[in-house]
Design a protein that fits this description.
The complex is a heterodimer of chains A (about 290) and B (about 375). In chain A, about 40% of the residues lie in helices and about 20% in strands. Chain A is elongated and about 75 Å long. Chain A is built from ten helices and eight strands. With about 290 residues, chain A is of the alpha+beta class. A three-stranded antiparallel sheet of chain A has the order 1-2-3. In chain A, strands 6-7-8 form a three-stranded mixed sheet, with helices on one face. In chain A, a hairpin with a 4-residue loop joins strand 2 and strand 3. Chain A folds into three domains: about 120 residues, Sufe protein. Chain: A, CATH 3.90.1010; about 50 residues, BFD-like [2Fe-2S]-binding domain (Arc Repressor Mutant, subunit A, Orthogonal Bundle); about 80 residues, GMP Synthetase, Chain A, domain 3, CATH 3.30.300. Chain B has about 375 residues and is α/β, with parallel strands linked by helices. Chain B contains 13 helices and 13 strands. The chains are: A alpha+beta (about 290), B alpha/beta (about 375).
Chain lengths: ~290, ~375
């Protein structure tokens, strides 16, 4: 049972501005039914004053998702586009008093729906000079969390605007990493990058020139055959390089390492660490049995 | 007003159970292991509780070990089967087990054991041919729940136990949801281990039991003192064991009531909701289901929102397999294993009755639920 504030419960039980607007000036849609929450935001804007006259929503989601959408529409109504463009997910959470940290992704869904609506408006009214904050840099539109379809750009935005420092927090705010958990290492790398600890884009010797796929595979093979296998053999074990897909390196432990209780530790703390050090910080090693 | 229909989560402590416990929480606080007669009444109540529970399960009293909960019973059975057959390093279980079994299996996999998770069909049913194929000469244990907590499916555990034995494997069943709701007669089965939990049958939380068939090899999980004939160390939870004994007695007396009265409440509610709510679907195998459980999916809406509105509108306490209620971000592993349509997956509600529910409870549910489903549907961006 979540500990919701009275205001969250009020906006959940008596949501304001539910429904669609006929002939809206802008529509913003985020989320999808597979992931368990989705929101559609409709805006009506006064063409003279560029003020949001009306905002309505439809939401599929839990109590805090509905309350966040209701809060968003209340925050938007009466604001000029300029004023509204400064809205963050934290404003939604503050409006509601507080959201449980695990539910902060609901407030993020609200602010993302609004950003989507602003982009939609910028397209349909190019002459209005709609303030759209284009935050996506090249390569950042790639999906990091495949369970919940979360892109690197979304993760970076949320980390920056909410001053997040842990993977767990990123999961609370974006859901990324909350499914199979396979992208947690990658989220850590993004965090490290933003917090200035390391650069996931820099290669082995500090170069920022990305390796081609072929170069990367050759380098992985090389590091694997020399350093890694030698190291394992010293302990009576061995390993086999099964396949490489993107940054994922599939390894089968053999010899004494196969079935060893600390096999996972060996893979993550030694094999993966070595490959990250020598090839790329984005390398993820998985065991194949 | 409270309409408590979440009895698969926990049940109220029966009045008789509470009264059976009080002496052991007040005057008769002796330790059953003490040599002096003051501890004697505590040790006598443990004997009679064990006999009551044995009668409910159709086994001998000395085949029962009191534990702290269903989870402890599950862990003990699984680890025992591996410890006593070290040449066999495989477990066969199902994709729809309770986490008390699944998480133990996942941990064992990390330690090098092989685990096979049997799939289920869209109604949550197992295919016996899959069971047969999965069990090999390496298999130490087959663990299949008697009844599923979320959808109420009852599995053919007696038959699966026979298949396991034919391959020389032991068989465990997590019967936490079945005990007290369906008739169990262990004397006529090949089951080696059975786990149960007190608080699912009107005893308090914090007490459970493990049945270990006579001559089944056993390794104790908790070691130390000689309690439970050296099979489970730790000073007995005397009051709760007294409560569980009384709960077992009451369950035996009320076994018919589950199949008639409780089932009647469930069926009337289910038929009523199916007739009045938009796009509902019943989850599970309606032919082989616990008499008290109804899991229903409502399309295009989310479970937590339904639950909180049910509570606000009528004090209705149910549960949901949606992600938001579980504290995780993924919906129920059971519904996912069934391959449920993603438009339904997030809107599942489980109603689970007990003999303490009334016809009036059903009336409240039937009155309050349809408007909530309709209101949330109207709010949803989907399904228009």
């Amino acid at each position: 049972m979540w500990d919701y504030t009275e205001k969250v419960m009020d906006h959940f039980l008596n949501p304001r501005n539910v429904g669609a607007i006929a002939n809206p000036d802008a529509v913003g849609e985020v989320g999808n039914i597979v992931c368990g929450d989705a929101m559609k935001l409709y805006l009506k804007v006064d063409p003279k004053t560029k003020t949001i006259q009306d905002a309505k929503f439809q939401t599929f989601g839990c109590a805090s998702a509905i309350a966040s959408a209701s809060a968003l529409t209340e925050l938007l109504k009466g604001k000029t586009l300029e004023e509204a463009s400064r809205l963050t997910n934290q404003d939604i959470a503050n409006f509601l008093g507080e959201l449980p940290e695990e539910k902060m992704h609901c407030s993020v869904m609200g602010s993302e729906a609004f950003q989507a609506a602003m982009k939609n408006l910028a397209k349909s009214r190019p002459d209005w000079n709609v303030p759209v904050i284009e935050v996506v840099e090249e390569g950042e539109d790639r999906i990091v969390c495949h369970c919940f379809d979360v892109t690197e750009a979304e993760i970076r935005n949320v980390i920056r605007s909410n001053h997040l420092t842990t993977v767990e927090q990123v999961t609370y705010y974006t859901k990324a990493g909350g499914g199979c958990g396979g992208c947690k290492d990658e989220i850590q790398l993004i965090l490290d990058d933003i917090l200035g600890k390391a650069s996931p884009k820099s290669g082995a010797d500090g170069t920022t020139v990305p390796l081609t796929n072929l170069q990367k595979i050759a380098l992985i093979q090389d590091v694997f055959d020399s350093i890694i296998r030698d190291g394992l053999k010293a302990d009576g074990g061995d390993a086999e390089l099964v396949d490489i897909a993107g940054d994922t390196v599939m390894v089968r432990l053999t010899g004494k390492c196969a079935g060893c209780a600390s096999a996972l530790q060996t893979l993550k703390h030694w094999v993966e660490a070595k490959l990250r050090e020598k090839v790329s910080a984005a390398i993820n090693v998985v065991e194949v049995k | 007003m409270l309409v408590y229909v979440d009895n698969n989560a926990t049940t109220c402590v029966a009045r008789e159970v509470f009264e059976a416990m009080v002496p052991f929480l007040t005057d008769q606080y002796g330790n059953p292991s003490s040599a002096h007669p003051f501890g004697g009444s505590a040790s006598k109540i443990i004997v009679s509780s064990r006999e009551n529970l044995a009668e409910l399960l159709g086994c001998d009293a000395d085949e029962l070990i009191f534990t702290s909960c269903g989870t402890e019973s599950d862990s003990t059975a699984i680890l025992s089967a591996l410890a006593t057959q070290q040449n066999r390093r495989k477990i066969v279980t199902t994709a729809v087990e309770h986490p008390a079994v699944l998480k133990v299996c996942k941990r064992l996999q990390q330690q090098g054991y092989r685990v096979e998770y049997l799939p289920v069909d869209k109604h949550g049913r197992l295919n016996l041919a899959d069971v047969d194929n999965a069990i090999d000469d390496e298999t130490a244990l087959v663990s299949v729940m008697w009844a599923n907590n979320e959808i109420g499916n009852v599995y053919p555990v007696e038959m699966i136990a026979e298949i396991a034995h034919a391959r020389g494997a032991l068989f465990h069943t997590d019967a936490v949801q079945a005990v007290g709701k369906v008739k169990i007669d262990l004397s006529s089965t090949a089951i080696d281990f059975l786990s149960l939990s007190g608080h699912k049958l009107h005893a308090p939380k914090g007490v459970g039991a493990l049945y270990v068939r006579r001559f089944t090899p056993y390794w104790s999980f908790l070691t130390g003192g000689h309690q439970e004939r050296g099979q489970r160390a730790g000073t007995e939870n005397v009051a709760s064991i007294a409560g569980l004994g009384m709960a077992a007695l009451l369950a035996r007396e009320n076994m018919e009531v589950e199949q008639t009265y409780v089932k009647g409440l469930r069926d009337r509610m289910e038929a009523g909701l199916l007739a009045t709510c938009p796009d509902p679907a019943v989850n599970g195998d309606v032919e082989h289901r616990l008499p008290n459980t109804s899991s229903i999916c409502f399309k295009y809406i989310e479970g937590e929102a339904i639950l909180l509105r049910l509570y606000q509108a009528g004090g209705i306490c149910a549960s949901s397999g949606s992600a938001c209620t579980s504290g995780s971000l993924e919906p129920s592993h059971v519904l996912r294993a069934m391959g449920l349509d993603y438009r339904m997956l997030h809107g599942s509600i489980r109603f689970s009755f007990s003999r303490y529910n009334t016809e009036q409870d059903v009336d409240v549910i039937l009155e309050k639920t349809p408007p909530i489903i309709k209101a949330l549907r109207e709010m949803s961006p989907f399904g228009h």
